[in-house]
Amino acid sequence: MAPRFKLNILWLENELGIAIDQIQAGEQIPLTDYFFWPKSDTWDQIRQELETKPWILTKEKAQLLNATATIMNEWQNSMNKTAK
């Protein structure tokens, strides 16, 4: 059975934390630390972490990065709305 992945999100008032776990045989295995945006370039840090995992298919890496970007955009949009 192919591994599945889970994005872990900490949706905080002033920052967004994102980490990725691998789900295998019912176990949740951390693949990355939490990266906090906008303090760090979270998308690029996750990209770099995924590049060190050769067992993850390129397609899966792209899906995880796209999901990360979507979540970051949603968080930014919500911050812009509350700032008005």
From TrEMBL:
Plastid is among the record's keywords: yes
GO molecular function: structural constituent of ribosome
A GO term from the CC aspect: ribonucleoprotein complex
Gene3D superfamilies: 3.30.390.140
Listed GO biological process terms: translation
Stated family: Belongs to the chloroplast-specific ribosomal protein cS23 family.
Subunit-level organization: Part of the 30S ribosomal subunit.
Name by which UniProt lists this protein: 30S ribosomal protein 3, chloroplastic
Organism encoding this protein: Phaeocystis globosa
